[in-house]
Each structure stands twice: as structure tokens, then as C-alpha cells.
Amino acid sequence: MASARAALRLRASLPGRPAQIIADVNRQFASDVEASGAFMTLFYLALDSTRQTAQWVRAGHDPAILYDGATGRFEELAGRGPALGLDDDAVFEEREWKPLRPGQILFIGTDGIWETAGPDGRFFGKERLRGLLRTTCEHSARQIANTIVAALESYRQGLKPSDDITMVVIKIL
Hints:
Blueprint: H1 2-12, H2 18-33, E1 42-48, E2 53-59, E3 64-68, E4 73-77, E5 94-97, E6 105-109, H3 126-135, H4 141-156, E7 167-171
Antiparallel strand pairs: 1-2, 2-5, 3-4, 3-6, 6-7
Helix pairs in contact: 1-2
């Protein structure tokens, strides 16, 4: 993780399109982990406030979710691309969303969120997550994230998380 983070920070500081940045990071990461068989998923997002665009590359990670409270519509920021470290010559697909509008919410999270299990063994699920994004869309990004964390804790009813819960919530202003 530390080597991938360092490679990503360095490469992202240099010119290049998101797909090329991730291909370069993947090549470095693959050489670092080739003997171990390790891999890592990643969702790379670049926001351009001047052009009101979001560009992204998926590297084996679940799609990000974009919610537009003005229309009530959800979009998945999908695209093809393997996890980092599996193939040093992997090709990554770059996608773009435009225009970004005030009030839209971008949510990126790990599967530990929707795969949080309650005492009955049932998962929290993406629909419940979408419901929280819908009902909290007027709140700040921090308040939305805090609401999701509280909902997950309540759903587990005292059970320990079985996976990591990591998220980024961005609210377009």
C-alpha cells in the first residue's frame, strides 16, 4: 500500500491523462509485488472545477456513485480495468462525466460498506446506501459520511466490522 501510494503521488504530480497515470503506477506496483501475488484495487478520480468535469479510471475497484439531488438520479461511474499488480501491461479505460453541478454528490467506498452484515447475516447493501445519499443530499459531505458511519454501526448492532470501511464523499459546490 505504501509503495503504491508513493508511486501514485509522484506520477500524479507529472503531466498525463488519468489512464496513463494509472498504467504507469500499475507497471511500478506490479514489479514491486510480482513475487508475492499481491494486488490492489483503486478508483482514481480527477475533478476539474473550471471545466466542471470528473475523469476517472477504475482499477478493479467498485464504481463510484454519483447522486444528483436535483433530478433524483443515481449514476455509477463504471469503466474497465483490472486491479493493480495483476498484469504489468494492463490497459485502463478512462471515462468522463460532465457537467458537474452544484449539489451533486460523488461517493467512493470499499465493499466493506455494503457488505456490512447485521446480526441476521444480511448485508447492508447498496440500496440502503443509496437511500442514505438521497435523504442526506442537502447536508455537507462530512455530515453525509458521518451519517453513513452511524447507520453502519447501528446496522451491525454491536458486531465488529468484518472488513474495512473506507469512503470518500464529495459534494459539488
